[in-house]
Design a protein that fits this description.
This protein has 7 helices and 7 strands. Strands 1-2-3-4-5-7-6 form a 7-stranded mixed β-sheet, with helices on both faces. The relative contact order is 0.17. The protein is of the alpha+beta class. The chain has one domain: Aminopeptidase (3-Layer(aba) Sandwich), CATH 3.40.630.
Length: 213
């Protein structure tokens, strides 16, 4: 049986992020920055600039994502955090807010090729829900792909609707035939409210830092 562990992406684990993402930055130099930056800034930063921007966010103290390890090897990534950290969502007709309830967002997955099609995305989602709740979130939502069209695994980077369903998410809106908005309600531990407010503030500061980079 494989030994699977999950850990927040902290400064100490940055070398594992780089190892997992590899020279292509997970997918075409993205480095999980697509949702954090306006279109022009994102494309201008493809590659090393996006890598340095994510590294600064990791160093800010609020982990922007979750690493999965299989037998000690970095195998998967799930990027998530307060929705306020992702301005591209606000400017999207498809992913615009469903309501005024504060939500956290899952924006990105990357699973290394040897570990794909083994249910790791579902397990990442469940762990992201647990960690988001521990940090004070009460809603976790995602924007997966729901389509039978063939696509390379690396390019279904927002996740598959079927994986979200298996992880306890339910569709709450659909403004595109292939892109539902799916949510899971979370039960935050007591005294997590202050942590959640701090996380939102940290996300906004990290977002400003990324934009400056």
């Amino acid at each position: 049986m494989a030994r699977i562990e999950f850990h927040p992406a902290t400064t100490e684990r940055w070398p594992d992020v780089e190892k997992l993402f590899g020279p292509r930055g997970a997918c075409a130099g993205c480095w999980c920055m697509w949702a954090r930056l306006p279109r022009a800034e994102f494309h201008a930063g493809v590659g090393d600039k996006n890598r340095r921007a994510l590294k600064r966010i990791v160093g800010s103290g609020e982990p922007p994502g979750l690493l999965a390890y299989v037998n000690g090897e970095p195998a998967g990534w799930c990027g998530f955090g307060p929705r306020a950290a992702y301005p591209r969502l606000e400017n999207s007709k498809i992913m615009a807010p469903v309501d005024d309830r504060p939500a956290w967002s899952v924006v990105c997955f990357f699973v290394a090729r040897p570990f794909r099609r083994q249910g790791l995305s579902v397990r990442l989602l469940r762990e992201a829900a647990r960690q988001a709740a521990a940090r004070g979130a009460t809603i976790l939502e995602g924007y997966p792909t729901d389509t039978r069209a063939k696509a390379g695994d690396a390019f279904v980077w927002t996740g598959l609707a079927s994986a979200f369903e298996r992880a306890g998410f339910r569709e709450v809106a659909r403004r595109s035939r292939t892109r539902p908005i799916m949510r899971r309600l979370l039960r935050a531990p007591r005294r997590a409210g202050a942590h959640a407010r701090a996380a939102v503030g940290g996300a906004r500061r990290a977002r400003a830092g990324a934009a400056r980079g």
